[in-house]
Amino acid sequence: MTESPPVIEMSVVATPSVVWPALRDPELIKCWHGWDYEGLDEEIRQIYLDGVAAEDAGAYSLLLTSGDRFSLHEHEGTTLVRITRAPRGRDPAVLDWYDDITEGWTTFLQFLKFGIEWHGLDERRTLFLEGSATVGDTARHLLGLDEITGLKVGERFRTVADTGDQLSGFVFFIGDHQTVVTVDDLGPGLLEFGEQPVTSTRPNGGSQILLGAYGLDDEEWGELEERWTRWWRARPSAEPST
């Protein structure tokens, strides 16, 4: 039996006419897709411009050359954003990163929802950390956020993270492999933490953290970025992203 490709859905409190430009304008895409690094503009161009196989603006549908399809569906003043993944296929190079891409789309849709509903897709600053972890560790545990285990979406939390930051906010999303929470003092901002799937280059899987902040000046962001990066590099078996 052929496995059905994953379907990722998320509801945004906005009309499709508001959400659609966020899929087509590179400057708006930067406000939710990926994270800050030197190649982000090129990545966006490759996926959303050069990597488009078919586009129907009237139907709010976008098919990528990868086989992934975006579609927007209006429902009572909200928009259901749906990504239908391409079939897994048999290409080992594709199979190795298939689950990573699924989890990545899941993360980015949460940042799209949050960016539109809370910040009107204002500019953000992001920090991405990834690497292996000691056996039994998770990104949640590394951050010192075990106490939020069992909370439901919408429930509030307040704790001190292992980074030394006092974090408060509410649970924004809970998935099988990742959790997303808001952070009041970062704009508010959004914090995703989760487990990376096993691949040929990551035989034991790994952990990742994506932090998005709004409204911080250069000094405030620089201090946060340095503090979190120093903390991550000091973790046993944790390797910072480059």
Name the features.
single chain, 242 residues, alpha+beta, 2 domains, 29% helix, 30% strand, globular, disordered C terminus
Describe this structure in words.
This protein is an alpha+beta fold. The chain has 7 helices and 11 strands. The chain has helices at 16-19, 21-24, 26-29, 40-48, 92-119, 139-143, 218-234; strands at residues 7-12, 52-56, 61-64, 69-75, 78-84, 125-131, 156-160, 166-174, 178-183, 189-196, 206-213. The longest helix is centred in the middle third of the chain and has 28 residues, at 92-119.
What would a concise description of this structure say?
The protein is of the alpha+beta class.
Describe the strand arrangement of the main beta sheet, using strand numbers: 6-11-10-9-8-7
Which superfamily, in CATH terms, is the homologous superfamily of the largest domain?
START domain
Helix content: 25-40%
* Count of individual helical segments: 7
SSE order in H/E notation?
A: EHHHHEEEEHEHEEEEEH
Q: What multimeric state do the chains show?
A: single chain
State the end-to-end CA separation. Answer: 40 Å
Shape: globular
Number of beta-strand segments: 11
Task: State mean pLDDT (0 to 100 scale).
Answer: 92
Low-confidence stretches: 238-242
